[in-house]
Amino acid sequence: MKDITQRFSKTAKSMQRSAIRELLKFTNNPDVISFAGGFPAPDLFPIEKMKEVACEVLDEDGAKALQYGETEGDLKLRKLLVERYNRQGFNIDVKNLVIVTASQQGLDLVSKIFLNRGDKVVCGLPSYLGALQAFNAYGANMIGIRYDAALDSTLEVLQTLKELPKFIYTIPDFQNPSGVTMSEADRRMVLRIAEKYDVLVVEDCPYREVRFDGEHIKTMYEIDNSGRVILLGTFSKIFVPGFRLGWIVAHEKIIDKIVTAKQSVDLCSPVLDQKIAAKFLEKGYLDQNIPKIIENYRRKRDGMIAAFEKYMPEGVQWTRPEGGLFLFITLPDYMDAKDLFDIAIKENVAFVLGNAFFCDGSGKNTMRINFSYMSEEMNTEGVKRLATAIRKLMN
């Protein structure tokens, strides 16, 4: 065949490789300290309790655990998640929740059921790269805004053009990559604007329970009373990422369409993983482990910020997140993080280029730094190497 790529669909042609996954190729060298991935700390994985729970599941329910399951997800797991949300102030039942193969599949399925090619999606500048990939794959035209205050004027213009977005995408808690948390007042403002223009809101919440400082803020789903919010959750940051389990909470009509879309993708998420997760939840192990994660990540965040304060040259700025896994770094305007990356790799330290998170191609002087994966000592050493690379670029 002369050129097989010409046979690809429009969707396939619009797909882009993950900048993060591509950068990870540079970090195979064991001497490289990598701040690139959004990896949880592996020493916090509850391996012994997982062995216990897995054996119990196989002993008690092995045949069902190894069989196909319902597309909606394991009923016990769904009930446990619903009960957990309702204890936090929600008012949902199992008809409002579907299990998905991690929240990344949730983003894909939401895109699949709502987006036609050319449809508008409003998202932050910056915003989660995996979401941008999902929206782009379905041909979305992404409209980036830097501040929530710009949302009303942006939607007013789009309404005039008769091009209102299908939804607003937001990560209100410890946003990836910025680490910033949206106040309750801002969440309510977004909802008022969404209701004014009658658009949906996709609320991505992978980090919500990993809070170090401050008080928990209500989710937009809790605040909303119109059924327009679609909430995405995951076990990846509070349990284990290898299970690839997440969920979507939404109006039952949306959930019904999500289930239909999911049936053509994978029929069901891994049943054994779901049953182990349900047993882990039921025994109270999840709630026992989350405080350990929080304390560990708090120390790492504090240690990394202390290292930035000690070693970074003047002109470099960084966020101080109240939770999550990331710092967002802003270099002086005249600098390009891509040029810095080439120098940093020679110093055996890696990060993610910030412009990958900007749907408009801006953010060239920014970078995302992960503090959860490496040890505190390696984080400090990595910051020292990064500071050396920045000084070299400055000179």
Description:
- With 395 residues, the chain is α/β, with parallel strands linked by helices.
- It folds into two domains: 4-46 and 287-394, Alpha-Beta Complex (Aspartate Aminotransferase, domain 1); 64-283, Type I PLP-dependent aspartate aminotransferase-like (Major domain) (Aspartate Aminotransferase, domain 2).
- It contains 14 helices and 13 strands.
- The chain has helices spanning 10-14, 19-23, 47-65, 75-87, 102-114, 129-137, 151-160, 184-197, 220-223, 252-263, 271-282, 285-311, 337-346, 376-394, and strands at 33-34, 97-100, 120-124, 141-145, 167-170, 200-204, 229-234, 246-249, 317-318, 326-330, 349-350, 352-353, 366-370.
- The strands form three sheets. The protein has a seven-stranded mixed sheet, with helices on both faces. The chain has a four-stranded antiparallel sheet with strand order 9-10-13-12.
- β5, α8 (184-197) and β6 (200-204) form a beta-alpha-beta unit.
- α5 (102-114) crosses α10 (252-263).
- The longest helix has 27 residues, at 285-311.
- The chain is globular.
- The chain starts with 9 loop residues before the first helix and ends with a helix.
Summarize the structure.
α4 (75-87) packs across α11 and α13 crosses α14 (376-394). The chain contains 14 helices and 13 strands. The protein has helices at residues 10-14, 19-23, 47-65, 75-87, 102-114, 129-137, 151-160, 184-197, 220-223, 252-263, 271-282, 285-311, 337-346, 376-394; strands at 33-34, 97-100, 120-124, 141-145, 167-170, 200-204, 229-234, 246-249, 317-318, 326-330, 349-350, 352-353, 366-370.
